[in-house]
Write a structure and sequence with these properties.
67 residues
Length: 67
């Protein structure tokens, strides 16, 4: 993977994690708008990461609220 593609993946991963955290905090997130200009492959990858991070962020917030 070349440097440009690797940087794009890192950027997408950061965005997926950030939007998942926003979602877990109850803020509205329009994933259709976020992924609108991505290729089909990028959309699939992004949504998978977003969903994974949503689960993690939701669990983390639940744990914070327990303590």
């Amino acid at each position: 993977m070349n440097h440009k593609n690797l940087q794009a993946v890192k950027n997408f991963d950061f965005l997926a994690r950030s939007f998942a955290r926003m979602h877990a905090l109850g803020q509205p997130v329009d994933i259709q708008a976020v992924t609108g200009n991505m290729s089909t492959e990028q959309k699939i990858w992004f949504r998978e990461r977003y969903e994974q991070y949503c689960l993690q962020a939701t669990r983390a917030i639940e744990l914070e609220l327990e303590h």
